[in-house]
Amino acid sequence: MAGALGSIRNRLSRRWPDPQEIRTLFPALPRSEAARTAWRIAALEARNRLLVECIRREVLPLVEAPEAFATLRPPLLLGTFHVGAIHALGPALEKLPGPVLALRQGRLYAAEPPVEVVSTEGDEQSRAAVFLRALAHLQAGGFVVTALDVVPGDGLTAPCLGRTLELARGPFALARLAGVPIVPLTARWQQGRVKVALDEALTSSGETELAAAAARWLESYLLESPGELGLGLLRSLLSSRPDPR
Amino acid sequence: MDIDEAVRDLVRSRAPLARAQTELADDLRLGPGGLGMDSIALVELLLDCEQRFGFRPGSWRPGELLEGPPLTVGRLAAHVRAVTGS
Question: Among candidates A30, A3, A159, which has minimal Cα distance to A85?
Fold first, then answer.
């Protein structure tokens, strides 16, 4: 229902987002497909707003975790982007085979063990304490889950969809210091449920190279499913400078 | 080299703003309002200390340093001295 209302609002207003904005990032899309993508993004935004409100009231969505979760072996860093139903990932994390430390800006809900949610809000010293804790968690053989595209401090940049994507440096530094790969983790709405998926691990010894690999992964995911792009990430990409290459 | 000087050398290696200063006062903050080190640089400095001084397992608790008041050059050096027993 929320998705349908978001889509209708977009069709009437042709804003949030504008189909032309979609074509800036996806120039290969025909006009009609760009309009449909704009409806999908608007529907996703409306659905996610309702989802966040429900989670705050401890009404959790139906989430389907992939069978591949059981085969994952920590220590491992799971990286998310603001695409799809990212806020619904929490309940799926409980199915990971090991202790999970999830980092997010602000607390959305109180997780149950083996999942612990820690806020990255605060000054540099508070964030250093969280970073150190995440590093110790990985070194002790746990999972750390964090968004890659929220930038509280100085970030890394990498080309994505013809623009300059800004990525948080923390997850890439964490992967380097712990010597672990980053596994992309996504969640998307599917017939009223949320389906969680994993992809191939991203590995590189350098932070910049790993960030570039993450940006390439995101670009490929969005070219395949442009309607999964979150409105916030879309705005962030549009306001960034065009990639000079 | 004494502990205080060794800690200051590690600070200089991680904080560009410290390199131009011949003296690093005890009350100089490592983070904002002082040397401007970000969260990752702060953690890397603490890891450098761990590697440089080879603390006994369990004796070095860097998380406690970060949870207290703003970390200064003097507080870090004092903590390292306390842990190494120097």
Answer: A3
pLDDT, position B54? 86
Whether A129 and B66 lie within 8 Å, measured CB to CB: yes
Measured CA to CA, the distance from residue A28 to residue A194 in angstroms comes to: 28
Query: Which of A32-41, A42-51, A160-169, A213-222 bottoms out in mean pLDDT, i.e. has the lowest?
Result: A42-51
- The per-residue pLDDT for range A136-178, each reduced to its tens digit, is 999 999 999 999 997 666 789 999 999 999 999 999 999 999 9
Long-range Cβ contact pairs of A192-196 (< 8 A, separation 24 or more): A192/A62, A193/A61, A193/A62, A193/A63, A193/A64, A194/A61, A194/A62, A194/A63, A194/A64, A194/A85, A194/A88, A194/A92, A195/A63, A195/A64, A196/A63, A196/A64, A196/A65, A196/A66, A196/A69, A196/A89, A196/A92
A129 vs chain B: nearest CA distance in angstroms? 6
Give chain A positions within 8 Å (CB) of B42. 124-125, 128
pTM equals: 0.90
- Give the other-Cβ count within 10 Å of A78's Cβ: 23
B38-81 residue pLDDT tens: 999 999 999 999 999 988 877 888 998 998 899 999 999 999 99
* Helix or strand (DSSP H, E) at A194: strand A193-198
On chain B, the residues whose CB falls within 8 A of the CB of A133 are 63
Note whether A46 and A9 are within 8 A (CB). yes
Radius of gyration of chain A measured on its C-alpha atoms:
18
Q: Going by C-beta distance under 8 Å and a sequence separation of 6 or more, which residues neighbour residue A3?
A: A43, A44, A46, A47, A189
Residues A68-77: pLDDT tens digits? Answer: 999 999 999 9
ipTM: 0.93
Asked if the Cβ–Cβ distance from A126 to B62 is below 8 Å, we say: no
